[in-house]
User: Fold these one by one.
Assistant:
Number 1:
Amino acid sequence: MYQFIIPNKKILTYQIFAYGIIILNLLGLFLAQPVTGEKKFNIAPAGIAVVLIILWDLYRYKKKGTLQSIGIIILLCGIFWMSREYTYLLLLNIFLWALYMISKRKLVITADKSCVAYPSFPEKKILWRDISNVVLKDDILTLDLKNNKIYQHIIEYTDKEAVNEAEFNDFCRKQLMVHS
């Protein structure tokens, strides 16, 4: 079995949307207070905390190229809404958290003797009989399907994961011959 990690190029966009969700939750909290007649809740500390988390995340992204997972904050916002008896906002936050976690997952293409698993959502299993050609060349993986679709991705390797191109291409050629 061969596994290839492909870079998630939209991860920064997903992170910005997640921060937007958190900010909308804070804004909703601020606007909901007069309607519910609750004692005024000072959202300044929460707002300052969100700004600090965003700044820290930007710093980490520029220095290390990584982003922190903020899904727990989205869930905490949902729990807060549940405590105020806005169950539908809890459910909305759980749904948005699930989408966030799906978007931040590691994208891995897997090739084995039965199929090639492509990391869409849900994962797409492409049978060898539906593939015209598979080539790994210069860290670019190309899947050419019989329905004229082509998937092409740059592969991300760690030092331990490097795959021998000739060996992989030979494996794919054999699978294509067996399943044609």
Number 2:
Amino acid sequence: MSGTIGVLGGMGPLATVDFMRKVIDLTPARRDQEHLPLIVYSVPQVPGRSACILEGAASPLPAMLRGIRTLAQAGAECIAIPCNTAHHWYDELARESRCPVLHIVDAACAAMERRAVGQGPVGLLATTGTIAAGIYQARLDRHGYDCVVLGARDMEDLVMRGIALVKAGEMEDARALLETAAAKLGTQGVRAIVLGCTEIPIVFDGVSSSSVPPIVDATQALAEACVEWYFGRAGRAAESHG
């Protein structure tokens, strides 16, 4: 199946569905046959990514590598991982894959550049594991952005608690906490706020304050990168035969 995109999902399951919906919504299709072919590996029994990074708990890498191999065997020609913290193991996953693996942070940076977000401080709402692992910081820096995060207490009480509530299906309580977290970041002079955990966009409706800068949904950015890859592959194929 030409142009098939493999999705290494399940981290968490609802975030995987949110990502797939965004791919579908972004695709300029008028009938079924014009949509992107996706093969989805959604196996939630992957050990916790943040627990591994922060506490030395069981590594999720073997489980994720099984997913990469399964997608390759199924015919994936490009892979997307709708989990930010999983990108701590991006290099190992990319080495295992026989096809390109899109990076969610590169996708988010591209989205900011498309939206003309000026260089400077950028707020990040993400898990403590994602922040501790430096998944965003170096790549943001290469694009001229400085990463700004909340303090430890707000991270625990607002961000991590909000993410846990999304996973537990308590959406209204999660929304209130995460929107409060975004509003606090917005007071720190950031040019944009990146939603760097795929659970956050599920409930995030934005905040009403005019002081809050543009919101960049990394899940949406990864979906945009998938659509761009799919429709760009014909041009790349033509160049290779030129």
Number 3:
Amino acid sequence: MILIDSGPLVAMADSADQYHRECLAASRTVSYPVGTVWPVLTEVMYFLSGLPRAQEAVWDMIARGSVEILALGPEDAPRIRELMQKYAALPMDLADAALVRVAEREGTRDIFTIDKKDFSVYRLHGKLRARVIP
């Protein structure tokens, strides 16, 4: 499984985004399944709030099964909180913490993100660096 952050979703849906071409090209090389979490989708819809067609493009990705929404439950909350506390100096937002938590839970290190700076600092299980795509 590859986890996708808000940046590539926004970029792929918005042709005017500076990362649009790079993320589309990278998405063609990604093996599936691709998953994300609700906090990421909340960010995406906020960033695309003035672009209803782009929002629809994201919903279409989900409807087609190109992007799967992964569940977060109460058992994930303590680790998400711990991650946000640990990386408060960056700061780590809820979406990033949720992705790191799900990566740990699902046993993947692959994160599709344009946020290379922060994801190069985060550690899965306190020691493993994520593999950042692209």
